[in-house]
Amino acid sequence: MNDNSSGGGQHDTAIAFEQVDKGFNGRKVLDNVSFSVARGEALCILGRSGTGKSVTLKLMIGLHNADAGKVLVGGKDMATLDEDGLVKVRRKMGFLFQSAALLDSFTLNQNLALPLHRLDRTKSPDEVRHAVGETLRQVGLENDGEKMPAALSGGMQKRAGLARALILKPEILLVDEPSSGLDRITAGEIDDLLIKVKSERCTTMVIVTHDIHGARRIGDRFAVLDQARLLAFGTPEELDGRQDMRLRQFISER
Amino acid sequence: MLKSAFESIGRVTLFGARALRDAWTRPLEGQYMLWQFYEIGVGSFLLVVAAGFALGVVMTLHTRSTLVQFGATADIPAFQSLAFFNEIGPLVTGLLMAGRVGASIGAQLANMRATEQIDAIETLSINSFKLLVVTRVIACCAMLPILTIFMDIAGILGGFMSEHLVSHLSWTLYLQRAFENVAFADFIPPTLKTAVFGFLIGTISCFYGYTTNEGSDGVRKAATKSVVISSLVIIMADVILVKCIFFLFPDQAI
């Protein structure tokens, strides 16, 4: 089932998947998947482990290429972009990894300053320091800038990862399992941060999650992946109205 | 088995060629490169100096017991310096670095791959190959000759200490005898050949660390392969490089 409705015209589409196939070692993890995400919208991708949710995010940012079909970001086909083209598209995107993936030999300040030093050479060292401090303040880590990632708790690492993803003020934020490994309260704090970013900056978000409670708080639409195919796509209310038992397993809060 | 070995050789060669090509392109990653110089150079200094000093002592003990039979103990300093400058200094420094730096680079990059840190760098629009591989390869090439010089100095110092305790030979006379037969070709080409060792260590260990995709087991394999293959390749390359030096400086071969 491929539902292409995104609620916006072509010019309002931030990300589009067109009949995308992707496999690893002969096993398909995405099979003929199509959907689109409108600008400013938050899409939550739900599904069981191993159904290609994280791969979907990595296709969006060009870490993987589709075996077939097209992945369009801002109207650009990711597979056809050269290195410079990819850099330009990625500059508009932020990625929060499931493990936060902070560079473990850098302090938090250095982790956040790295993209600024490389990509915004107009900024003076003082401006970089200010931008890093400001972003850390937004995620509540203003006093932890000199700490190494290993010295942080899981929740703090997630917040630091989010700060790094936000440092370049991305138009599109990709988030992989924001609540995994966190207690309910800390997961709720991460969700609050994402909601704040979305409302303040009108950032387009694609969030892979197992946490249906958090997904219902943040997501404008849900995409449900099952057995490599798109099982359902739509607003939470639309999906709640469907009688598909398999779908209900993924979207009911129980 | 043979096919796989040739495939690996081909892949490492292409990887090294890419590192050589990218070394001349911007950005130069100066800050990160300096850090690698520090990690590889300063971090290995004590190991190299301690090993060189101990080898110097041991070599003098061995050569003395042999040369004393021929009444040629006056030649001990010359044997010591020629042996260290020509072969012991460069080869032992290369092997020590293959152990220390090879394992470190292989494990670190494999861990960064396993924990998605390399993917994170890519998502920040930073060329991870340039940042992580090229800087390490250049640092290895630059630091090996410098460390070799310190190994030579420590070896000669160790030889002097050993000789001084037995024969009370003065430092001035020891140095005079050590250097009177040393030609340009005894010192410069063998020292510079360690830049090739550095390139091989950097390329091989970066290759196994950067290209692994096997999680934590990949870290173990990358560290082991980096050390074993770097050490083996250095010894094999030494044969070729010594023949090249003999070809370019025929007096050395006599």
Unreliable stretches of chain A? 1-10
Q: What's the β-strand tally of chain B?
A: 0
- Which shape of chain A, going by the Cα principal axes? globular
Terminal Cα span of chain A: 25 Å
Number of strands of chain A: 10
Give me the number of helical elements of chain B. Answer: 8
Based on the structure, what is the oligomeric state of the protein chains?
A: heterodimer
Determine Rg of chain A (CA atoms, Å).
18 Å
**Percent of residues in helices of chain B:** over 70%
Determine the structural class of chain A based on helices, strands and strand pairing: alpha/beta
Number of domains of chain B: 1
In short:
The complex is a heterodimer of chains A (254) and B (254). Chain A is an alpha/beta fold and 254 residues long.
Question: How does this structure look, described?
Answer:
The complex is a heterodimer of chains A (254) and B (254). Chain A has a domain at 103-169. Chain A is built from nine helices and ten strands. Chain A has helices at residues 53-60, 83-91, 108-119, 125-138, 154-166, 184-201, 212-218, 236-240, 245-251; strands at 13-24, 27-38, 42-47, 68-73, 76-77, 93-96, 172-176, 204-208, 221-226, 229-234. In chain A, the strands form two sheets. In chain A, strands 6-7-8-3-9-10 form a six-stranded mixed sheet, sandwiched between helices. In chain A, strands 2-1-4-5 form a four-stranded antiparallel sheet, with helices on one face. In chain A, strand 7, helix 6 (184-201) and strand 8 form a beta-alpha-beta unit. In chain A, helix 3 (108-119) packs across helix 4. Chain A starts with 12 loop residues before the first strand and ends with a helix. In chain A, 44% of the residues are buried. Mean pLDDT of chain A is 88; it is low at 1-10. By secondary structure, chain B is mostly helical. Chain B has one domain. The mean pLDDT of chain B is 92. At the A-B interface, helix 2, strand 6 and helix 3 of A face helix 3 and helix 4 of B.
